[in-house]
Design a protein that fits this description.
The structure is a single chain. This protein has helices at 15-23, 116-125, 135-146, 213-222, 280-298, 313-329, 349-356, 370-384, 392-405; strands spanning 3-8, 32-38, 45-49, 78-84, 98-99, 105-113, 156-164, 169-174, 183-186, 192-195, 236-238, 243-248, 266-267, 307-308, 334-339, 361-366. It is α+β, with helices and mostly antiparallel strands and 407 residues long. The strands form 3 sheets. It has a 7-stranded antiparallel sheet, with helices on one face. Strands 5-6-7-8-12-13 form a 6-stranded antiparallel sheet, covered by helices on one side. A 3-stranded parallel sheet has the order 14-15-16, sandwiched between helices. α5 packs across α6. The longest helix is centred in the C-terminal third of the chain and has 19 residues, at 280-298.
């Protein structure tokens, strides 16, 4: 999953604050952590490890490898922090924050670019050299090759922050459909902060939780949430799906407060209808081809991949395709994870069983209980950050706990 944090503080950045922001999301990335700091004018940088950085990462020899847990010799005004859940290239080469070979571009990133193999080949043909097998390094190379247009080449889910020291900008972006979250807040002291979860802002010295009354009204009356860039916390905004933000650091990296007018997210992606001239059979064949390719790409991982199975048409289709693809690739047995109910009127287990009946699948089931929900609702609410409208969130909470228990 991974998690990120970023601070642009014209009057000086507190190292403890950035560390606290990443500590708040340790659950998103228990495998590694790291930081990079930049001086006023962006002329100097310092990257270092955290207390959860694995020992093999320290001094690993890459341009971005930390030498230890140390403080910069300057007062930083920009900082990036990262918590890693290792999925692609689980070695020390996948450490973040990651830099280009010349350390002129740095990235923290949450997500996965599924077509990183094809992009790596294209970029290598353009002369780019790679030292890891990570998709993070591919994103950096794509940024250097194509700038902001690189987003259109990514097939995946992502939230990212890039500090480009050549152009002296900070670039933030969110994937097409907002699968990965990216929040930001401009504080009363003129500091700009980015985060993967709203709770990270609660460690800021000037934080005070205030309700966004209009958004609360719309949630309570219409069950609307995430329909604007605002959140239920006044002053906390999000990049919306398919949005990006390019921020000029040269103007604000040396003591000038940031104004809200300097933050102008733009939409880099819009879903457009595509014309199709064919019959139903041809449409079905095209859908099957695109669906199969989509699932094939998502099986790329250096850790075990499982499937959530509800028994509905969408998840059942995915499970069948995964089984077919694994058989073609000579892969292992697929594991599925499902939430069921002891009450027949709410139980979909018969459809789940039907989906896996003739497949080489190791099926796992969990039965969420109402009394357990009340015991766990405080922890569930803390993780969610904002209210949710149905108990399906709790069902999925149980499904992923089951998956974690199976490794």
């Amino acid at each position: 999953m991974c998690g990120l944090a970023g601070i642009v503080a014209p009057y000086g950045l507190s190292l403890k604050t950035l560390v606290a922001m990443t500590d708040a999301i340790r659950h998103r990335g228990p495998d590694d952590e790291g930081f990079v700091y930049f001086a006023p004018g962006l002329e100097r940088s310092h990257w270092c490890a955290g207390t959860d950085t694995p020992e093999p990462v320290i001094g690993a020899g890459y341009a971005y490898s930390p030498s230890g847990i140390g403080k910069p010799e300057f007062a930083p005004v920009v900082g990036l922090g990262h918590r890693r859940l290792a999925i692609v290239d689980v070695s020390e080469a996948g450490h973040q924050p990651m830099s280009s070979a010349g350390r002129d571009c740095w990235i923290v990133y949450n997500g996965e670019v599924y077509n990183h193999v094809e992009l790596r080949e294209e970029l290598a043909a353009l002369g780019h050299e790679f030292v890891s097998g990570s998709d993070t390094e591919v994103i950096l190379a794509a940024w250097k090759a194509w700038g902001r247009d690189c987003l259109h080449r990514f097939n995946g889910m992502f939230a990212l922050l890039i500090v480009d020291l050549r152009r002296k900008i900070l670039f933030a972006a969110r994937d097409r459909f907002g699968i990965k979250p990216l929040y930001y807040r401009l504080g009363p002291d003129g500091a700009l902060c980015f985060a993967s979860e709203i709770k990270q802002f609660t460690v800021l010295p000037d934080w005070k939780a205030k309700l966004n009354h209009q958004r609360a009204y719309e949630f309570l009356v219409w069950s609307l949430l995430d329909h604007t860039d605002e959140t239920l916390f006044d002053g906390v905004r999000q990049l919306r799906p398919g949005e990006a933000l390019e921020f000029d650091l040269s103007e604000f990296a040396s003591g000038q407060a940031i104004a809200s007018s300097a933050l102008a997210p733009y939409r880099w992606y819009r879903l457009e209808a595509e014309a199709f001239s064919g019959d139903l059979e041809q449409a079905g064949a095209r859908f099957r081809e695109q669906m199969s390719e989509s699932v094939r790409l998502r099986l790329r991982a250096d850790v075990p991949v499982g499937s959530c199975l509800s028994g509905g048409l969408d998840s059942s289709t995915i499970v069948v395709l995964v089984s077919q693809l694994l058989a073609q690739q000579g892969g292992g047995v697929q594991k599925t994870f499902s939430a069921c109910s002891e009450y027949k009127q709410f139980d979909e287990k018969e459809w789940i069983d039907e989906a896996v009946r003739n497949l080489d699948v190791e099926a796992h089931y969990v039965y969420p209980a109402l009394d357990r929900l009340f015991e766990e609702v405080e922890a569930l609410t803390w993780h969610q950050d904002e209210p949710f409208a149905s108990t399906s969130i709790y069902a999925q909470w149980n499904v992923f706990r089951l998956a974690a228990g199976e490794g």
